[in-house]
Every structure is written in C-alpha cells, then in structure tokens.
C-alpha cells in the first residue's frame, strides 16, 4: 500500500483568533509593510 500526500502552501483567510502574529499571517504582514524584498 502506498500513501501520497500533497501539502498545501500557505493557507489564506481570516484567522480564528484574530491574532496576526502567527507564522502564516506573518508573510502577508511583511508584504504589506514592504519588508519582504519580493513577492513569493
């Protein structure tokens, strides 16, 4: 038996807690603050 798994990239959408310090939201925060040199 073989198992293949496809993991998604960043999951976009509102956070459940409203906390923007989580890792997945940090990328968007850096883009908005122009701290990321390029868009992934």
**If you compute it from the alpha carbons, what radius of gyration comes out, rounded to the nearest whole angstrom?**
14 Å
Principal-axis shape equals flat
Low-confidence stretches: none
Largest sheet: none
Overall pLDDT metric:
76
Helix content: 25-40%
Indicate the proportion of strand residues. under 5%
- Determine the structural class based on helices, strands and strand pairing: mainly alpha
Quote the distance from N terminus to C terminus: 36 Å
Give a description of the structure.
With 40 residues, the chain is mostly helical. The protein is 25% helix and 0% strand. It has one helix and no strands. It has one helix at residues 23-32. The longest helix has 10 residues, at 23-32.
Tell me the layout of helices and strands:
Blueprint: H1 23-32
Key descriptive features of the protein:
single chain, 40 residues, mainly alpha, 1 helix, 25% helix, 0% strand, flat
Short description:
The protein has one helix and no strands. With 40 residues, the chain is mainly α. 0% of the residues are buried.
